[in-house]
Structures are given as structure tokens and as C-alpha cells.
Design brief:
- By secondary structure, the chain is an alpha/beta fold.
- It has one domain (2-123, 194-302): Purple Acid Phosphatase, chain A, domain 2 (4-Layer Sandwich), CATH 3.60.21.
- It has helices at residues 2-7, 28-44, 59-75, 127-138, 145-162, 166-190, 198-211, 267-270; strands spanning 13-16, 48-52, 86-92, 95-101, 103-108, 111-116, 219-222, 229-231, 238-241, 256-257, 278-282, 286-291, 299-302.
């Protein structure tokens, strides 16, 4: 907040790319309580809060869908809704948060920016869901966004429920780290790219935009991996991973964006940076990827 005041004192909006609430590792009341001081500080500074739900706080989406279903059921409008495209106002201890899933779209400087958490880019990671995916492909069917969403909801809700059981949280942490190491090893051996780099995920970025018929996207901004990076192919959107602004290692939660600037060298960030404590400032002139405590931006890009 001090840096936003210093480098972008007229900042009006902050977009949080999910996982501010970690429902996977703590009971929901504890997860919300831990996040309130940060949200309250944003509100006190007069910033509009846009919140794009991630995987660790995906239960917010389930709650919204269930509430909408009950409203429809009361009216007698009973029909299936499989692909969420949600926008709603969520209140936490009197703090209003405009909430989106799976993405938030905004025009800035005449360009279309799309913000999402980024967990969709990894697709189906858990073993059980991979088995279901393979069985479906054997029948000649492709996995559609609706299928992916239902499968992820099944997995995420299971993890959400297990947060009430300390032993399960420890076991899941172990399995998660082991599977992550295996995935990194496999990607490093066969693709020679870091699995979390923006370059390695660029194809998934294009597919995300195409599968959801999102139209023209000039800049695709996400977090999830906590690995800051920038990459672009000719004719495609600029893809930016904001990294993570919280001061801890990549085993933690959030990723952020707010609102600045100019220059270019995509190659240095194509593979993804291990740099911690990063966030993005955006205005009509361009964007600046910054690191906490560093006066000069890590990366500057003009929009025109």
C-alpha cells in the first residue's frame, strides 16, 4: 500500500487474483479472519476491490451457484448451469467486494485486459480426475470447459471439507509437494521449460480465451503459480503472470494487480522469474511489473 501511494497515488482500483482466502488449509472462519486486515486497509484507502476467485477460495463460487439455484428453484426455474460466468457483490465484515469468476474484463488505454486466477491453465492435475479425463477421451469426447469446471469443483470441495481435519491437511500438503516435484521433473526433462513459466502456459492461455469465446484480448493477466513472467507470440495477446505480493515462499497464497508505464524486453521474463514479492501496476500508458522495496520496475511495457 505504501508503494502504490508512492508510485501511483491516484490509483482507484485493485484487482486481487484470488487465494486471499485459503479455505484449503484453514477453517473458513479462520481464513476470512486472516484476510480481513488486508481488505480493510484497501477499503480505508478508498480503493474499489475487484476479486477474481481462485482455486483455494473456490468454495465462494460453489456458495454463489447454490444460492442462485435456490432462488431459481423457488421460482420454479429448474435447469442445469454448468459453466459459471459469475459477477456478484460479496460482503465480509461490512467490507464490500465485487467478485468475479472465472475472469474479470476491463478496458484500459483502449486495450482489452483479462484478469483470471490461472488455475484453469493447469487443467486437471489430480490423479483421479486424470483417469476420468482419459476414460472420456477413449470414447472420443473432448473435455469441455463445463466438464473441467465440474471436475475441479469435485476436487476443490473435497479439499475444502478436509481443512476441518488437521491430519488431512498435513497429508494433502505432503502429496501436493510430491506431485509438484514429479511434475517439475517431467517438464524439465521432456520440455526443457519450467512448468510454471508463462511461455510453457501460453498455449493454455490461448485455449482458455478460445474455449470461452472471450473475443479480443490484448493482455491476459494471471497469478496462481506465484512465478512472475511475461511472454508474447506474434499476433497473440501479451501474457503476464504477476507473481505474488505476499512475503513468503511459493507455498503460500495470493497474487495481485492494481494500477502504471514504458520500455520492452519480453525475453528476460519468458521463462518465469523466481523473484518474490511482485505485483503489477497498470494505467492508460502501460504496465509495470514491480518488486516490493525496489525503486526501478522489473519490467515496463507501453500499451501503444
Amino acid at each position: 500500500m505504501q508503494e502504490i501511494s508512492e508510485y501511483q497515488s491516484d490509483c482507484r482500483e485493485v484487482v486481487l487474483l484470488g487465494d486471499i482466502f485459503d479455505f484449503w488449509r484453514a477453517r473458513p472462519e479462520c481464513a476470512v479472519k486472516d484476510a480481513l486486515p488486508f481488505l480493510r486497509r484497501l477499503e480505508e484507502d478508498g480503493l474499489k476491490i475487484r476479486y477474481v476467485v481462485g482455486n483455494h477460495d473456490h468454495h465462494l463460487v460453489v456458495q454463489k451457484q447454490e444460492a442462485e439455484f435456490l432462488e431459481r428453484a423457488a421460482r420454479g426455474d429448474i435447469f442445469p448451469v454448468y459453466i459459471p460466468d459469475l459477477r456478484w457483490r460479496q460482503t465480509f465484515a461490512g467490507i464490500d467486494v465485487e467478485t468475479f469468476y472465472p475472469c474479470y474484463r476491463k478496458m484500459c488505454g483502449g486495450r482489452a485486459f483479462l484478469f483470471t486466477h490461472g488455475h484453469h491453465l493447469d487443467g486437471i492435475q489430480t490423479l483421479t480426475l486424470q483417469l476420468v479425463e482419459r476414460m472420456r477421451r477413449l470414447s472420443g469426447e473432448e473435455i469441455l470447459p463445463a466438464d473441467l469446471e465440474m471436475m475441479m469443483t469435485y476436487a476443490y470441495e473435497s479439499i475444502y471439507r478436509s481443512a476441518y481435519i488437521g491430519e488431512m491437511v498435513s497429508f494433502e500438503d505432503f502429496v501436493w509437494k510430491a506431485s509438484g516435484l514429479l511434475q517439475r521433473f517431467t517438464m524439465a526433462v521432456f520440455s526443457q521449460q519450467h512448468p510454471a513459466s508463462v511461455q510453457s502456459q501460453y498455449g493454455a492461455v490461448l485455449q482458455f480465451i478460445r474455449d470461452r469465446n472471450l473475443g479480443q484480448v490484448d493482455c491476459f493477466i494471471y497469478g496462481d503459480t506465484h512465478r512472475a513472467g511475461i511472454f508474447q507470440r506474434k499476433g497473440g495477446p501479451l501474457a503476464v503472470n504477476t507473481g505474488c505480493f505476499a512475503r513468503f515462499s511459493s507455498t503460500g497464497s495470493p497474487a495481485s494487480i492494481s494500477a502504471s508505464m514504458s520500455g520492452i524486453n519480453l525475453a528476460s521474463f519468458a521463462q518465469g522469474s523466481e523473484t518474490p514479492d511482485t505485483y503489477l501496476l497498470l494505467d492508460d500508458d502501460g504496465l509495470a511489473l514491480r518488486q516490493l522495496g525496489r525503486k526501478r520496475p522489473l519490467f515496463l511495457c507501453e500499451l501503444f
